[in-house]
Write a structure and sequence with these properties.
- The protein has 114 residues and is of the alpha+beta class.
- The protein has helices at 2-32, 100-113, and strands spanning 42-51, 54-61, 64-70, 75-81.
- The two termini are 42 Å apart.
């Protein structure tokens, strides 16, 4: 009986260690930018979601800027852009984006109150 309890505790501890390790490795990969390919000449400047699965993007190829339409199966050239037409000022739309933890905590509090 005691050995079964000890085996269960060992499995639970290993599981928790794996979860914590996965969490920190995922955060490290996201910060390091390893997921995105590194390119000096191609950059996505801005993306605007039009509808589900349809986007308008401003991209920089070399020293020129272009607007493209992106869907699941297609990329459409829209127009070339001049640098003077673009606004590179930082986004000051109000509050900074909330983290998942903050959103989850708010959601949990609202459900507990009900």
């Amino acid at each position: 009986m005691l050995s079964n309890v000890l085996q269960l505790l060992v499995v639970v501890v290993i599981f928790v260690i794996i979860l914590v390790g996965t969490y920190y490795v995922t955060k490290w990969i996201a910060k390091s930018g390893m997921i995105q390919s590194q390119s000096k000449n191609i950059k996505v400047i801005e993306t605007f979601k039009v509808t589900t699965g349809k986007y308008i993007q401003i991209i920089k190829l070399g020293t020129k800027y272009y607007a493209i339409g992106v869907t699941k199966d297609n990329i459409t050239f829209l127009t070339p852009l001049d640098e003077e037409q673009l606004d590179f000022s930082p986004d000051i739309s109000g509050s900074p984006r909330a983290s998942f933890k903050e959103l989850f905590d708010n959601f949990s509090k609202k459900n507990k109150e009900k």
